């Protein structure tokens, strides 16, 4: 090995040791500290924050109130199933609600209920507002 290569190794080893906490420039070894990602989870986790079960709520949206009913099944705070029932009577609105109802399970099933907030979906920008309102009600119903 060349002298320059040996010098690099001599400099790198103490630097690496300092990074992993195995070497200290002081007379005593430093105690390892907890990394921020190892912090204890909050006392109320998703697992015990919401009671498992099937919940139903009707969400309202729009200037001329439109409604959709949402039935969501929760297990450990995760949506495991969702069904949306359209209530529109105007053909175009009914079509949008039906398209939304068909598309929403692919977006929310398997996600924590606290992370669900649906935006424009399947061409509908109003129906998601009713869906999100129903999800808020379901969260309130399911709180322990």
Classify the helix fraction into a percent range: 25-40%
CATH C-level label of the domain at 46-142: Alpha Beta
CATH architecture of the domain at 46-142: Alpha-Beta Complex
**Main sheet overview:** 3 strands, antiparallel
Q: From the alpha-carbon coordinates, what is the Rg to the nearest angstrom?
A: 27 Å
Q: What's the shape?
A: elongated
| Strand and helix order | HHEEEHH
Number of helices: 4
CATH topology of the domain at 46-142: Sufe protein. Chain: A
Structural class: alpha+beta
Number of strands: 3
Q: For the record, give the distance between the C-alpha atoms at the N and C termini, rounded to a whole number.
A: 67 Å
Q: What is the topology, as strand order, of the major beta sheet?
A: 1-2-3
The percentage of residues in β strands lies in 15-25%
**pLDDT < 50 runs, ≥5 residues:** 7-44
Mean pLDDT over the full residue set: 79
Q: What would you say about this model in short?
A:
The chain is of the alpha+beta class.
Entry keywords:
144 residues; alpha+beta; Sufe protein. Chain: A; 3-stranded antiparallel sheet; 19% strand
Description:
- By secondary structure, this protein is of the alpha+beta class.
- The protein is built from 4 helices and 3 strands, in the order H-H-E-E-E-H-H.
- The protein has helices at residues 3-20, 46-49, 91-108, 127-142; strands at residues 53-61, 66-75, 78-86.
- The relative contact order is 0.16.
